[in-house]
Amino acid sequence: MGLLDDMRAARRAAGRRQPAGIGAGPDGLQPALLFIPDISGFTRFIQDSGSPQAPFLIADLLEILIESNVLGMEVSEIQGDAILFYRLGPPPPLAELVSQCRRIFLDFQNYLRLLQRDTDSALSTALLAHDLTIKIIVHYGQISVAQIRQFTKLMGREVIVVHRLLKNNITGSEYVLLSDDYLQTQTGADLSRAFSWTRLLRGKCQYDHLGDVCYRYAHLTPLRLLLADRDALGEPGSTGGNALVVRRAVQVPVAYALRVLANFRLRPRWMVGVSKVQYDLTKADRLGTSYKVDLNRGQIDFQTVQRFEDEERTEYVEKISHFRLFPNSLLFFFIEPVSTRACLITLEFRYGHIASRRPLIRFGQLRRLHRFLGISLRQLAALCEQLSIKN
To answer: The domain spanning residue 188 has which CATH number?
Structure first.
C-alpha cells in the first residue's frame, strides 16, 4: 500500500463514529438512514418579504426542525433551508419514522401560527403572504463517513441520491417522500398501518448518472387538521392537553407584574434553580431577544416571541430551546386584572412531546416540571409584591 492509500485509510478510520455493535464493511461503507426536512417557499420569502427579521425567523425554524428530532439522528449539514440528518445502523420502523415526520410538520406549523397572530407586525404580514411549509425526503443506503478537521462529512452514491430527490415531479410543497430503498426494509402491513391517515402514492424520477429512482410519497396537508387554531393559541389550555398550567393572584397591577417577569436580570430571583442569565443589554427589551439561563447543571435558551396587551389581558410568550426533556416548548404568561392593584397570573408551559418512550419516566418528568412551575410562580408573586413595596 502506498503513502496516499495509507493517508486515506487513516482518514477513514478517524471519521468512523460507529454505534456499539455496528461496523463498516471492508470498503468503509455503513448502512444509514438519510433524512432531509426542507423548508418550501424559503427563497421567495427571503427575497420578497422585505422584513429584516426574515433571516432570523428562518434560523428559528431550522432550530425547530433540529429540536423536533425524536429518532436520535445526527446533523450532518445545514444548507440554507434544509438539514441533512443521518443515523447509522438498521433502519427505524416505519411507524417511528412517520411519527417523526408528523412531529416535525406540526411543530413547524404551530410555531408559524403563533407568529402570524401579531397582525400589526410586518413579519406576520409577510408570513401570511408566503406559505412556508415542509417537505421531507427519506432514504436508506450505504454511506461513507469521514472526519475532516472538526466536520463530519457523509459521502457516497446514496448521499447524492437523497439530495437529488429534493428535485422531483411531485405536485405540491408539503409531503414526505420515501425512497424504495428505505421501503424495502419494511413490510406491506407496516406501510398500510403507518399511512392510514392519508394516501400513499407512487413516483419515479430519472437523474443523470443515477438512472431511475423509485419512491412513494404522501401529502402532509391532512395533518393541518391537527394544528392548533391560530386564534385559539392565545387561550389558556388551548393545545389539546400538552400543557401544564399554574395560577396565582398577585397584589400588584398588571403593568408592574409584566415589568418584573420580562426583566431578564430578575430571573434568578424567582425561577427555581436559575443561577445566571446571559443576554445582550442593548436588545433586552425587544421581541425576538434571546437569552441563556444557567439552570441547575445545564443551560437552556429562551427567546421572546410575543407580547400582547389590551384592557382584558396581557400575554407574554417565550420559546424554549435546548431543553432536552421537552423539545420545542413554549412558556405563556397570561396576566389579567383583578382590580387596579391586583392581577391574576397564569403560567402555562406548552410542549410538543416528552423526550422519553417510558410512560413512568414521562409521568415523573411532568410532575417535577409542574412542581417547578408552581414554586417559580409563587416566588414571582412574592418578588413582585416585595419590589412594589420598596418602590
So the answer is: 3.30.70.1230
pTM given for the model: 0.76
Residue 295: which CATH number?
3.30.530.20
Q: What is the DSSP string of 240-269?
A: TT-EEEEEEEESS-HHHHHHHHT-GGGGGG
Domain containing residue 248: 235-390
Q: What is the pLDDT along the chain (391 residues), one digit of tens a residue?
A: 454 455 455 545 544 444 433 456 667 799 999 999 999 888 888 777 777 777 778 888 898 899 889 899 999 999 888 999 999 999 999 999 999 999 999 999 888 888 777 655 676 777 777 788 999 999 999 999 988 887 888 999 999 999 999 999 999 899 999 999 999 999 989 998 999 888 899 999 999 989 999 999 999 999 988 786 655 666 776 655 688 999 999 999 999 999 999 999 999 999 999 999 998 776 656 667 888 999 888 888 898 888 888 888 899 999 888 788 888 888 999 999 999 999 999 999 988 778 777 888 888 999 999 999 999 999 999 999 999 987 6
Regarding whether 304 and 213 lie in a shared domain, the answer is no
* 188 & 159 share domain: yes
Beta-carbon contacts of residue 199 (< 8 Å; ≥ 6 apart): 218, 219
For residues 210 and 260, state if they share a domain. Answer: no
DSSP character string of 82-143: EEEEEEESSPPPHHHHHHHHHHHHHHHHHHHHHHHT-TT-HHHHHHHHS--EEEEEEEEEEE
